[in-house]
Design goal:
Elements: E1 9-18, H1 24-33, E2 48-55, E3 58-65, H2 78-81, E4 84-92, H3 96-100, H4 102-112, E5 118-124, H5 136-145, E6 149-152, H6 161-176
Parallel strand pairs: 1-3, 1-4, 4-5, 5-6
Antiparallel strand pairs: 2-3
The structure holds guanosine-5'-diphosphate and magnesium ion.
Length: 177
């Protein structure tokens, strides 16, 4: 408690899932390091990044996991989901098929998570509005039907990236505190 001068700490695991090339790795690099990579490369190396935020004077850390490209082979393992308290389920607003696959990802997430998971449906690449294939309203409606938060983001121009992660981290915190 605060009387002995110690700060309470929280650490939550958050996973990012969704089809290949929807922008999962770039959402994480934009949030954690304010970086964007225009060249599509399979994620190599680091499997998660840790970010801290202050909520009600508490130090809340999110350990955010990114796939290493296994999603291409539909081979995301249960270890990836294990212990997750939150998930960002990402599709690409300019590629309809990635939205059509959201149901599959949701099913996989629900199969692998034992606790109540805070979920956000993320329509990424909203900077590509001119070639949009998924209307905002459709994303919203699906999220509402499935009990998820919803946000359109752009890892390219930073729109809503910080907000999306912060909403999910605050929701997890409020679920456990
Ligand atoms: P992942 O396979 O889901 O991790 O996707 P990546 O983060 O590797 O991104 C796949 C491709 O989409 C890369 O060429 C990125 O530069 C591009 N990309 C990612 N996010 C955005 C975005 O918000 N807008 C645009 N226009 N391109 C993006
Ligand atoms: Mg990736």
């Amino acid at each position: 408690d605060e009387s002995d001068g110690e700060t309470e700490e929280y650490l939550f695991k958050v996973v990012i899932i969704g089809d290949s090339a929807v922008g999962k790795s770039n959402l994480l690099s934009r949030y954690a390091r304010n970086e964007f990579n225009p060249h599509s490369k399979a994620t190599i190396g680091v499997e998660f990044q840790t970010q801290s935020m202050d909520i009600d004077g508490k130090d809340v850390k999110a350990q955010i996991w990114d796939t290493a490209g296994q999603e291409r082979f539909r081979a995301v393992t249960s270890a990836y989901y294990r212990g997750a308290f939150g998930a960002l389920l990402v599709y690409d607003i300019s590629r309809r098929s990635t939205f059509d696959n959201v149901g599959r990802w949701l099913k996989e997430l629900n199969t692998h998570s034992d606790t109540t998971i805070a979920k956000m449906l993320v329509g990424n690449k909203c900077d590509l509005d001119n070639i949009r294939e998924v209307p905002v309203e459709e994303g919203k409606a699906l999220a509402e039907a499935e009990g998820m938060f919803f946000m359109e983001t752009s890892a390219l121009d930073s729109t809503n990236v910080k907000t999306a992660f912060e909403i999910i981290i605050k929701e997890i915190y409020s679920n456990v505190s």
